[in-house]
UniProtKB/TrEMBL annotation, chain A:
<feature type="transmembrane region" description="Helical">
    <location>
        <begin position="352"/>
        <end position="375"/>
    </location>
</feature>
<feature type="transmembrane region" description="Helical">
    <location>
        <begin position="257"/>
        <end position="280"/>
    </location>
</feature>
<keyword id="KW-0812">Transmembrane</keyword>
<protein>
    <submittedName>
        <fullName>ABC transporter permease</fullName>
    </submittedName>
</protein>
<feature type="transmembrane region" description="Helical">
    <location>
        <begin position="180"/>
        <end position="202"/>
    </location>
</feature>
<feature type="transmembrane region" description="Helical">
    <location>
        <begin position="48"/>
        <end position="67"/>
    </location>
</feature>
<keyword id="KW-1133">Transmembrane helix</keyword>
From TrEMBL, chain B:
<dbReference type="InterPro" id="IPR046342">
    <property type="entry name" value="CBS_dom_sf"/>
</dbReference>
<keyword id="KW-0067">ATP-binding</keyword>
<dbReference type="GO" id="GO:0005524">
    <property type="term" value="F:ATP binding"/>
</dbReference>
<feature type="domain" description="ABC transporter">
    <location>
        <begin position="2"/>
        <end position="236"/>
    </location>
</feature>
<protein>
    <submittedName>
        <fullName>ABC transporter ATP-binding protein</fullName>
    </submittedName>
</protein>
<comment type="similarity">
    <text>Belongs to the ABC transporter superfamily.</text>
</comment>
<dbReference type="Pfam" id="PF00005">
    <property type="entry name" value="ABC_tran"/>
</dbReference>
From TrEMBL, chain C:
<feature type="transmembrane region" description="Helical">
    <location>
        <begin position="168"/>
        <end position="192"/>
    </location>
</feature>
<feature type="transmembrane region" description="Helical">
    <location>
        <begin position="212"/>
        <end position="236"/>
    </location>
</feature>
<feature type="transmembrane region" description="Helical">
    <location>
        <begin position="98"/>
        <end position="115"/>
    </location>
</feature>
<comment type="similarity">
    <text>Belongs to the binding-protein-dependent transport system permease family.</text>
</comment>
<keyword id="KW-1133">Transmembrane helix</keyword>
<dbReference type="InterPro" id="IPR035906">
    <property type="entry name" value="MetI-like_sf"/>
</dbReference>
<keyword id="KW-0472">Membrane</keyword>
């Protein structure tokens, strides 16, 4: 049988080969802000593990390069990702001189490229397996548990990002709570206001263009400006409306961030509600009317259920977008993971930036997967009903 | 002339076209009929190599169609498909000019040809040339589709259910147009259809396909009179058979001596139309006249009924 | 949305926007009420005009690069040669869009340092996705009989791509570019947190000195630019689509 190459495998193999043999695996720095020096895999890991990791990478490259069964590719990519996760922790312990609390070890380009290459392989396998929504959720859960266990086991404790965390453990969780509250709370508010507004826009055509235009224009205002612009009005409300400051409304801080996120969230919710309702088949609507349903019964029994997957898509957009935008809140004292990002940028301490950015990306990523799965579940449930 | 020799197409284990051989004489129309999945479209698409055969050869005027690159081959063969496939971003004139442009004709010659074709299809060049396809009616779009296929004066025209998307009245008109065009240019046409009526009406010869095999390839009268298998018989439709047979003949060939009362039937009308007229008026006979209005004799119900019987 | 802004209003706003960028001093009385303690009402740490031009320049460079790369990639994965990459590229786009722009920006800093570069990278990567996604949609949802007709007429693969497939996908691709530009215009302001010269500087200066006038004028200029560019690209899209008898929603 002739040897056949996998085209994606060629790309993965090229990235992995470069990353494993030519790029630095970890960066060592004498303290947290001096420039670091790169270390190749063999220099970054203790005697046996270095060559072992390289051997694993070579095997994985061969499997990726050739047309191999999906199961092999799945096993290889998972094994490599786990090995890399363990190895980078090991490198931290190995490179840090004993007793030295200033020295920092962080993952370098080689590590990130290897992660990228094998995540690509894994993503390709998972895409081609066409997993059902439930299985996708299970995979996400397993990945989350695995990362949690690695964190809890202390295997990564010698890495710089976790040293930054150790210095800020309390604030980290406080900011995390704020971040999630901001993202979810503003989403909730947007759904409570946006759904009725969308239904209204669907029913009253005169309103539709006007409302959507205003919401569209709000979207074009850069986030930092919108956050900033709300400081003034909210500060005025706090001063002049009795009781407002008691419930937490202030010129700076969480309130303007919350309002800004809420305003950004309205467009996707309203627009998708309108599109979803407009997409309800005319026949279904006519049939409902013909059977004597009242307007309300038609909305709740026919239109809304049929439009639901589209509305959920809007909610997915909002949630993912809000998790990202909530980082900006830090600029106006609103808290969230952005605090670490901007502090890190200010101090040119990249590990601190990562401490803010990595959880944000992970959160947005997980939210995207979960909502995609839910959307698919509601859409397939609907199709099954339609067939039955 | 198109010579198809032992052509076979297999996808994995499924044989879509199975060892088909047939010859289409120059300047004739061959209609390929079959149910969906019979392999008729695949057979057609192997002629201009939109599908590559697994084995066998196809020769056009004695030349193997693999002797030149596929895109050059296709430029020399007209191709019209169901739903016209016009380029929505190009005007009618630009659409028709597609192949001449690919062949590198000069501007003047292209413009001339486009005008000629539009006039031939009864579309005013000044009015329709600059329009976009979505600004035309279904029948007009279909005519432009055929005009585009004929633009580079191909000797061979392949048509895949070209009239499938048209309503019955426009379809009849389009069929008449096609017959006139075919006479005008002397093009060899292979036409795929699932409609036996259309095949009988247009085809000089009919090829019936079933399950990838060529079941029968013969003149329409023979297909109707001597169906080669029960499949062909079903396709012909036993209740329609006598009328289809009549539709092949002209009234001029059924004239008897004598005279009759009533409105005269033209000699070039089909025998089927004459029988319908006789039955509708309730008369046993009607006079027949030629194109100049000269009386030729009469046509009778009895005479037509005899012609509609299975030939010996 | 049929008409984003009525024509007359559009012209007035455009004139106002340009006048403000070139002669911001004329508008001082408007912004005075937003300041406290006699703070300057108009941005005084640099020229608004040059910041606007730098802002637009950064967005333009990133967007042009994103257009070239995104369309090339979309063409590649829709050819038989690259078909193996098609499913993966779809999931990558899906995953990529969950990355927050701030994170992309912040993560680019360690790789290339402060200034324009991380901003360009973030804008490029973030702008890539909507264009790629739309180009993919355009190239994979072409009417089958039109593509078939192109092949049947004897077009080579290259001719088919350039004369039929790309022109037919144009309205959808333009919509992707429009989305990408509007996102980039807003995201570029965040670039000023890593020392890129954009209109974000004005907003951040306002946030730092607690000067609402700066925040508002920075925000308004960016929003105004976005609205007009959105509007202009929308008009282009409509022209491209109308020829084919489609309508742009």
């Amino acid at each position: 049988m002739a040897i056949r190459f996998d085209k994606l495998g060629v790309v993965i193999a090229a990235i992995a080969a470069y990353a494993a043999f030519l790029a630095p695996f970890a960066t060592f720095r004498a303290n947290r802000i001096v420039p670091g020096e790169g270390r190749l895999i063999l220099d970054a890991l203790p005697a046996v593990s270095g060559p072992l990791l390289l051997a694993l990478v070579v095997v994985a490259i061969v499997v990726a390069l050739l047309k191999t069964p999906l199961a092999w590719r799945l096993v290889v990519s998972v094994v490599l990702l786990v090995a890399l996760a363990l190895a980078i922790g090991m490198a931290g312990g190995f490179l840090t001189p004993p007793g030295n609390t200033f020295a920092r070890v962080s993952p370098a380009s080689g590590f990130w490229l290897l992660i990228f290459a094998f995540t690509l392989l894994l993503a390709d396998v998972l895409t081609r397996l066409e997993l059902s929504p439930f299985v996708r959720l299970a995979v996400l859960l397993i990945a989350a548990v695995a990362v949690g266990m690695l964190l809890a086991s202390g295997a990564w404790d010698s890495l710089s990002i976790l040293k930054e965390y150790a210095n800020r453990a309390d604030t980290f969780w406080a900011e995390a709570r704020k971040h999630v509250t901001l993202a979810l709370g503003s989403l909730l508010a947007a759904v409570v206001v946006g759904l009725p507004l969308g239904i209204l826009c669907h029913r009253v055509e005169a309103l539709r263009a006007g409302v959507l235009n205003v919401l569209n224009i709000i979207q074009t205002i850069p986030s930092i400006a919108l956050f900033g612009m709300l400081i003034g009005p909210l500060g005025w409300v706090a001063l002049h409306v009795p009781g407002a400051s008691a419930i937490g409304i202030r010129g700076i801080g969480t309130a303007p961030a919350f309002v800004a996120l809420f305003l950004y969230s309205l467009l996707p919710v309203v627009a998708n509600t309108v599109v979803g309702l407009a997409g309800v088949p005319k026949a279904a609507n006519e049939a409902a009317r013909g059977m004597g349903m009242t307007d309300w019964q038609r909305l709740s029994g026919v239109e809304f259920p049929l439009a639901f997957p589209v509305i959920l898509t809007g909610i997915r957009i909002v949630l993912v977008q809000n998790i990202g935008l909530a980082t900006i809140a830090a600029l106006i004292g609103g808290g969230g993971f952005g605090v670490f990002v901007f502090q890190g940028v200010g101090q040119t301490a990249m590990d601190l930036v990562l401490l803010g950015a990595v959880p944000t990306v992970a959160l947005a990523f997980a939210a995207g997967i979960v909502l995609d799965a839910i959307i698919e579940l509601t859409a397939t449930a609907r199709r099954k009903e339609a067939v039955a | 002339m198109i010579e198809i020799e032992n052509i076979t197409k297999r996808y994995d284990k499924q044989t879509v076209v199975n060892d088909v051989s047939m010859v289409v004489e120059p300047r004739t129309i061959a209609a390929i009929v079959g149910t969906s999945g019979s392999g008729k479209t695949t057979l057609l698409r192997m002629i201009n190599r939109l599908v590559e055969p697994t084995s066998g050869t196809i020769k056009l005027d004695g030349v193997d169609n693999h002797s030149l690159p596929d895109y050059e081959l296709r430029r020399s063969i007209g191709y019209a498909i169901q739903g016209h496939g016009l380029f929505p971003h190009r005007t009618v004139a630009q659409n028709i000019a597609t192949v001449p442009l690919l062949l590198g004709w000069d501007r003047e010659r292209i413009d001339e040809r486009v005008d000629e074709l539009l006039k031939l299809f009864q579309l005013d060049p000044a009015d329709f040339g600059p329009r976009y396809p979505h600004e035309l009616s279904g029948g007009q779009q279909q005519r432009v589709g055929v005009a585009r296929a004929l633009a580079a004066k191909p000797n061979v025209l392949l048509m895949d259910e070209p009239f499938g998307a048209l309503d019955p009245i426009i379809r009849t008109k389009a069929q008449e147009d096609l017959l006139a065009i075919q006479k005008h240019f002397g093009t060899t046409i292979i036409l795929v259809t699932h409609d036996m009526e259309e095949a009988v009406h247009l085809g000089h010869k009919i090829a019936v396909m079933d399950g990838g095999k060529l079941v029968q390839y013969a003149r329409p009268a023979e297909i109707l009179a001597k169906p080669a298998s029960s499949f062909v018989e079903t396709l012909v439709g036993s209740s329609e058979r006598p009328f289809r047979l009549l539709s092949l003949g002209r009234v001029g060939d059924a004239v008897e001596k004598g005279s009759a009362e009533g409105e005269a039937i033209p000699a070039d009308a089909s025998q089927r139309d004459a029988l319908a007229e006789l039955l509708w008026t309730g008369k046993p006979a009607l006079p027949v006249k030629d194109t100049d209005g000269k009386a030729l004799g009469r046509v009778t119900v009895d005479g037509l009924v005899k012609l509609a019987a299975r030939p010996a | 949305m049929k008409v984003f802004l009525p024509a007359a209003l559009r012209i007035v706003l455009l004139v106002l926007l340009v006048a403000f960028i070139v002669y911001p001093g004329w508008f001082e009385p408007l912004f005075k009420p937003l300041t406290e303690n006699n703070a300057p009402a108009i941005y005084n740490q640099g020229s608004l005009l040059s910041l606007t031009l730098q802002h637009l320049g950064t967005v333009a460079v990133a967007t042009i690069a994103a257009i070239v790369v995104a369309i090339s990639l979309a063409i590649l994965v829709t050819r038989p040669f690259g078909a193996e990459f098609l499913p993966l590229s779809r999931s990558l786009v899906n995953i990529g869009q969950t990355f927050p722009p701030v994170a992309v920006l912040a993560l680019a800093v360690p790789a290339v340092g402060f200034g324009e570069k991380p901003t360009l990278i973030a804008l490029f990567l973030y702008g890539l996705l909507p264009i790629f996604e739309n180009a993919l949609t355009g190239l994979t949802t072409l009417p089958a009989n039109v593509v078939e007709a192109a092949r049947g007429a004897g077009m080579t693969n290259r001719q088919k791509l350039l004369r039929v497939e790309l022109p037919l996908s144009l309205p959808v691709i333009l919509a992707g570019i429009r989305l990408s530009v509007v996102i980039s215009l807003a995201t570029a302001t965040i670039g000023s947190t890593v020392a890129a010269k954009t209109l974000g500087e004005v907003i951040i200066a306002g946030l730092i000195s607690n000067n609402l006038a700066f925040v508002v004028q920075g925000g308004l200029i960016v929003a105004g630019l976005a609205v007009f560019i959105y509007d202009g690209l929308m008009a282009l899209e409509r022209v491209a689509a109308r020829r084919m008898g489609q309508t742009v929603s």
